[in-house]
TrEMBL record:
Record-annotated site: Transition state stabilizer: R17
GO biological process entries: amino acid biosynthetic process; aromatic amino acid family biosynthetic process; chorismate biosynthetic process; quinate catabolic process
Protein name, entry field: 3-dehydroquinate dehydratase
Record note on quaternary structure: Homododecamer.
Molecular functions (GO terms): 3-dehydroquinate dehydratase activity
Reaction(s) catalysed by this chain's protein: 3-dehydroquinate = 3-dehydroshikimate + H2O
Binding positions (substrate): N73, H79, D86, I100, S101, R110
Phylogenetic lineage: Bacteria, Bacillati, Actinomycetota, Actinomycetes, Streptosporangiales
Gene, per the UniProt record: aroQ
Family: Belongs to the type-II 3-dehydroquinase family.
HAMAP family: AroQ
Pfam family membership, one: DHquinase_II
Enzyme class: lyase
Enzyme Commission number(s): 4.2.1.10
Entry annotation: catalytic residues: Y22 (proton acceptor), H99 (proton donor)
Length: 147
Protein backbone atom coordinates (compact mmCIF):
# COMPACT_ATOMS: atom_id res chain seq x y z
CA UNK A 1 0.00 0.00 0.00
CA UNK A 2 1.28 3.43 -0.92
CA UNK A 3 1.57 6.23 1.65
CA UNK A 4 2.39 9.82 0.75
CA UNK A 5 4.65 11.81 3.06
CA UNK A 6 4.04 15.45 2.14
CA UNK A 7 6.19 18.34 3.36
CA UNK A 8 5.43 22.03 3.16
CA UNK A 9 7.54 25.16 2.79
CA UNK A 10 11.20 25.37 3.85
CA UNK A 11 11.48 21.70 4.76
CA UNK A 12 13.78 21.02 1.80
CA UNK A 13 16.31 23.09 3.76
CA UNK A 14 16.49 20.72 6.72
CA UNK A 15 20.06 20.43 7.95
CA UNK A 16 20.91 24.05 7.20
CA UNK A 17 17.65 25.62 8.38
CA UNK A 18 17.74 26.62 12.08
CA UNK A 19 19.54 23.39 13.08
CA UNK A 20 19.07 24.24 16.76
CA UNK A 21 15.31 23.84 16.19
CA UNK A 22 15.08 21.27 13.39
CA UNK A 23 18.31 19.27 13.77
CA UNK A 24 21.32 18.56 11.57
CA UNK A 25 19.81 15.87 9.38
CA UNK A 26 18.93 16.79 5.80
CA UNK A 27 15.75 16.40 3.79
CA UNK A 28 17.37 13.49 1.94
CA UNK A 29 18.05 11.86 5.32
CA UNK A 30 14.40 12.35 6.22
CA UNK A 31 13.21 10.87 2.92
CA UNK A 32 15.48 7.83 3.35
CA UNK A 33 14.29 7.35 6.95
CA UNK A 34 10.64 7.44 5.84
CA UNK A 35 11.17 5.00 2.98
CA UNK A 36 13.13 2.63 5.22
CA UNK A 37 10.49 2.81 7.95
CA UNK A 38 7.83 2.11 5.33
CA UNK A 39 9.73 -0.91 4.05
CA UNK A 40 9.74 -2.39 7.54
CA UNK A 41 5.97 -1.87 7.77
CA UNK A 42 5.11 -3.15 4.31
CA UNK A 43 4.29 0.35 3.06
CA UNK A 44 5.49 1.91 -0.17
CA UNK A 45 6.39 5.43 1.00
CA UNK A 46 6.68 8.33 -1.43
CA UNK A 47 8.17 11.54 0.00
CA UNK A 48 7.52 14.97 -1.53
CA UNK A 49 8.20 18.60 -0.60
CA UNK A 50 6.89 21.87 -1.96
CA UNK A 51 7.04 25.55 -1.08
CA UNK A 52 3.92 26.13 -3.17
CA UNK A 53 0.43 26.06 -1.63
CA UNK A 54 -1.28 25.23 -4.95
CA UNK A 55 1.01 22.26 -5.53
CA UNK A 56 0.36 20.98 -2.01
CA UNK A 57 -3.43 21.32 -2.47
CA UNK A 58 -3.13 19.37 -5.74
CA UNK A 59 -1.27 16.53 -4.01
CA UNK A 60 -3.96 16.40 -1.31
CA UNK A 61 -6.67 16.11 -4.00
CA UNK A 62 -4.65 13.31 -5.65
CA UNK A 63 -4.50 11.46 -2.31
CA UNK A 64 -8.25 11.93 -1.74
CA UNK A 65 -9.07 10.60 -5.21
CA UNK A 66 -6.78 7.59 -4.76
CA UNK A 67 -7.73 6.82 -1.11
CA UNK A 68 -4.05 7.23 -0.26
CA UNK A 69 -3.05 7.69 3.42
CA UNK A 70 -1.02 10.84 4.07
CA UNK A 71 1.61 11.83 6.62
CA UNK A 72 1.75 15.61 6.37
CA UNK A 73 4.12 18.20 7.76
CA UNK A 74 2.29 21.33 6.62
CA UNK A 75 5.13 23.53 7.99
CA UNK A 76 4.01 27.19 8.13
CA UNK A 77 0.80 26.35 6.19
CA UNK A 78 -0.31 24.71 9.46
CA UNK A 79 -0.96 28.05 11.02
CA UNK A 80 -2.98 29.87 8.36
CA UNK A 81 -3.86 27.91 5.20
CA UNK A 82 -7.60 27.44 5.03
CA UNK A 83 -7.14 26.32 1.42
CA UNK A 84 -5.04 23.39 2.63
CA UNK A 85 -7.46 22.66 5.45
CA UNK A 86 -10.42 22.56 3.06
CA UNK A 87 -8.50 20.21 0.75
CA UNK A 88 -7.62 17.93 3.68
CA UNK A 89 -11.25 17.85 4.81
CA UNK A 90 -11.95 15.86 1.60
CA UNK A 91 -9.68 13.04 2.71
CA UNK A 92 -10.73 9.42 2.15
CA UNK A 93 -7.93 7.74 4.16
CA UNK A 94 -5.96 8.38 7.36
CA UNK A 95 -4.16 11.71 7.69
CA UNK A 96 -1.45 12.16 10.32
CA UNK A 97 -0.20 15.70 10.95
CA UNK A 98 3.45 15.76 11.99
CA UNK A 99 5.87 18.39 13.24
CA UNK A 100 9.56 18.07 13.95
CA UNK A 101 9.47 20.68 16.71
CA UNK A 102 6.70 21.14 19.27
CA UNK A 103 4.81 24.18 17.99
CA UNK A 104 2.88 24.46 21.26
CA UNK A 105 6.15 25.23 23.05
CA UNK A 106 7.17 27.94 20.57
CA UNK A 107 5.94 31.36 19.45
CA UNK A 108 2.27 32.25 19.92
CA UNK A 109 1.49 32.19 16.16
CA UNK A 110 2.51 28.51 16.07
CA UNK A 111 -0.09 27.57 18.70
CA UNK A 112 -2.87 27.80 16.09
CA UNK A 113 -3.27 24.86 13.73
CA UNK A 114 -5.99 24.92 11.09
CA UNK A 115 -4.99 21.38 10.08
CA UNK A 116 -5.36 19.46 13.37
CA UNK A 117 -9.16 19.54 13.26
CA UNK A 118 -9.31 17.60 9.98
CA UNK A 119 -6.47 15.17 10.78
CA UNK A 120 -6.83 11.68 12.24
CA UNK A 121 -4.25 12.79 14.80
CA UNK A 122 -1.13 14.86 15.34
CA UNK A 123 2.43 13.90 16.35
CA UNK A 124 4.78 16.76 17.23
CA UNK A 125 8.02 17.42 19.01
CA UNK A 126 9.99 14.22 18.42
CA UNK A 127 12.36 15.45 15.73
CA UNK A 128 12.47 13.26 12.61
CA UNK A 129 11.13 10.47 14.80
CA UNK A 130 7.73 12.19 14.54
CA UNK A 131 7.56 10.81 10.98
CA UNK A 132 8.52 7.29 12.10
CA UNK A 133 5.79 7.37 14.75
CA UNK A 134 3.29 8.66 12.18
CA UNK A 135 4.10 5.86 9.73
CA UNK A 136 3.59 3.33 12.52
CA UNK A 137 0.24 4.98 13.26
CA UNK A 138 -0.77 4.70 9.59
CA UNK A 139 0.26 1.02 9.49
CA UNK A 140 -1.84 0.36 12.60
CA UNK A 141 -4.89 2.15 11.18
CA UNK A 142 -4.63 0.24 7.88
CA UNK A 143 -4.30 -3.05 9.77
CA UNK A 144 -7.46 -2.16 11.75
CA UNK A 145 -9.32 -1.52 8.47
CA UNK A 146 -8.17 -4.81 6.98
CA UNK A 147 -8.70 -6.79 10.16
C1 LIG B 1 7.12 22.73 11.65
C2 LIG B 1 6.64 23.77 12.67
C3 LIG B 1 6.05 24.98 11.97
O1 LIG B 1 5.65 25.94 12.92
C4 LIG B 1 7.08 25.63 11.07
O2 LIG B 1 6.47 26.68 10.34
C5 LIG B 1 7.76 24.68 10.16
C6 LIG B 1 8.11 23.34 10.66
C7 LIG B 1 7.84 21.55 12.33
O3 LIG B 1 8.01 20.52 11.67
O4 LIG B 1 8.27 21.66 13.49
O5 LIG B 1 8.12 25.02 9.04
O6 LIG B 1 6.00 22.22 10.96
Amino acid sequence: RTVLVLNGPNLRRLGTREPDVYGAETFDDLAALCRETGRGLGLDVEVRQTDDEAEMVGWVHEAADGRVPVVLNPAAFTHYSYALRDALAQRTAPLIEVHISNPAAREEFRHTTVVAGVATGTIAGFGLRSYVLALHAVAGLLADEDG
